[in-house]
Amino acid sequence: MKYAIIVPVYNRPDEVAELLESLTLQTFKDFEVIIVEDGSQNPCEAVCKQYERLLDIKYFIKENSGPGQSRNYGAAHSTGEYLLILDSDVVLPAGYLAAIEKELCREPVDAFGGPDCAHDSFTDTQKAISYSMTSFFTTGGIRGGKKKLDKFYPRSFNMGIRRDIYERLGGFSKMRFGEDIDFSIRIFKAGYTCRLFPEAWVWHKRRTDFRKFWRQVYNSGIARINLYKKYPESLKFVHLLPMLFTVGCTLLVLLFILGIVLFFILPAGMMQARGLALSLLALLPLLLYAFLIFADATSKNASAKIGLLSIGAAFIQLTGYGCGFIEAWWKRCVKGKDEFSAYEKNFYK
């Protein structure tokens, strides 16, 4: 078997159905599918049974231990030469596996990954979230890609690796968030080659509303500090940008409020005008950035509504990540708490 597709699942039977349906349409057929149910209360076993005649599929259910350990479980029960790690909320174009096969035949590599984008069927909010996670004007440039501020680190929604190397590295760690970046760091530290496969892209649903999206990126900010504690050299200046953005936005908002207060308490005339000018100057950088996001997202999606939603998604993505980063830095680097402390109320049980 050439490829083993490993998918951990937690309470997402409908999304698994969409993923499996897209796998039946693949033009390259030499693959197996391993679905690992990670202690779900709403399992997808019935969905998997519907595809037993169409796919070489294996279904396993285990106690909840997080996505990394579930991938390791699936890898141990697979036979593929290459392991393809996918999230359950992705859908594959028909040429996905063929694109991977073409890249590996052209230039073999130890590990790889592909980009993601929004499908036409996604809601406007999902498209806005997808934009914020892939745009060079948010953190798309930090995660790496065709336009990048750092080298490419494969992520678990679309990652591939040779089985022998996966086993040599011991698979994913026990981190419950950021475990894919941890794995990518270990791939590089061990001296293995890793490359972006631009044509091996997926449609990635991510989160369905801004509240869930905030929690996701908040956890990502926390994970970055946890990774720093494990690998101090992994923290680069580009990883500080969301934190700096968050601090900058906070200061600008405070200056805006100060200007409004001064406008009402200072005597009429020049002094009052200075208070108003301070408020306007504080708003200007935020408005310029919002306009940049609006123009770019509107152009890419051919929709002004998505452009407007993308402004909110971009600010949530950067400030959510920044807030999680700051909280984790305070708890872990200043107060000396353990890896789990910053997640006490929002991720770990």
From TrEMBL:
Residues 5-169 form the Glycosyltransferase 2-like domain. Keywords: Membrane, Transmembrane, Transmembrane helix. InterPro entries: Glyco_trans_2-like (IPR001173), Glycosyltransf_2 (IPR050834), Nucleotide-diphossugar_trans (IPR029044). SUPFAM superfamilies: Nucleotide-diphospho-sugar transferases. The chain crosses the membrane at residues 240-264, 276-294, 306-330. Pfam families: Glycos_transf_2 (PF00535). This is Glycosyltransferase 2-like domain-containing protein. It comes from Segatella maculosa OT 289.
